[in-house]
Amino acid sequence: MNLRFSDRARSYVRIIDELPDVLYQKLTDGRKLTFRSLPDPEDEPEDERSDTFFLALEAARRSDEEYLRVLEELEEEDEASAKGQRIERALKDRVRQQLGLPPRPTRETMTPSEYARAKGIDPSYDLLHPKGKGQAKPDHLDDFVQTLLFPDQMERKLSGIRDGARIALSEMGVNILYAAFGYLEWYESETSDLKLFAPLLLHPLALERTLVRQTYRYAATSIDDDSEVNLTLKERLRRDFRLVLPDLEEKDTPEGYFIKVESAIKEMKRWHVRRFVTVGLFPFSRLVMYHDLDPDRWPEHKALHLHPVVVELLGGSERGEAFYADDYEVDQPEIAAKVPLLITDVDASQFSAIADVMDGKI
């Protein structure tokens, strides 16, 4: 119902500078998409390779008082040492300022958005619209997915996502790793000022990790051609706002579905469809239970609400049996004989429960 976006969260990664339909098509075509971080800052920016900068730097090395003072304090230290390199870098930054050049792109001097923009990457989480300025460029058509994270940040997040997905699959047998296409920006009431962001379309993924030249690479692949609408959101809108969130038809793309949703919410003045794409953990294990309990999924002659176990569990029994059963003496031959060979260890109460089941008791 609401994803609380946070830079510190390790359960999702937000995508930038991609086109939703193109990204979606690549996934449904079975392509493996590798996550791409922001490039590491260059040691020597392009604008420091000009003759103008070189001449100004040479003059500064002879006249800059701060540079000469700290250089003298190095004593016998090699000027090529880490400290010497920092002194040289500080001088170059002062020369940049004297020449009126923009700040050198670094993680310390620029925000990730500013740094991405300096590298020609659109940092907006609201992805470009293909009919507007968002025409496909070569980077949109390759097998990489751009993030607004530096390499170490991306590694931490994707490692956390991968671990969380593996744990959920091993412990609950449910995949909770999805790519979310589009979000509904909505409010719980007309008087609320709290924006909520609920994913619209969810496409199941698998995330693999490979080691390439001492660096982990993470790649996402589709594990199912079928995407699904956020059923939790759909039910909430139907119940509380009498809004019908449209179904996803086979021919629909994310862009086409966004148009449908915009039409469905047109009477809600502050609500908007945000063109976010997020890859992360969406613990919809209860959604699986909801599908299992759907009456339409059960044959009429075997309706779930008519199952004797469900009837007795919800309606009670006239047999007068105690709600809690006593433990048996499990070492007694007549009790042990009732229980088949067990694959894993059980305690006395579990053994007794199995014995009751073998006797036909619920």
Notes on the structure:
The protein is α+β, with helices and mostly antiparallel strands. The protein has three domains: 12-40 and 125-287, no CATH class; 46-98, no CATH class; 294-358, no CATH class. Helices cover 37% and strands 16% of the residues. The chain is built from 13 helices and eight strands. It has helices at residues 20-28, 51-63, 65-72, 82-98, 112-118, 138-141, 151-172, 231-241, 254-264, 285-293, 308-315, 333-336, 348-358; strands at 12-14, 33-36, 144-146, 177-186, 196-212, 215-222, 228-229, 272-281. Strands 1, 2, 3, 4, 5, 6, 7 and 8 form an eight-stranded mixed β-sheet that branches. A hairpin with a 2-residue loop joins strand 5 and strand 6 (215-222). Helix 2 packs across helix 4 and helix 3 (65-72) runs antiparallel to helix 4. The longest helix is centred in the middle third of the chain and has 22 residues, at 151-172. The radius of gyration is 30 Å and the shape is elongated. The two termini are 37 Å apart. The mean pLDDT is 87.
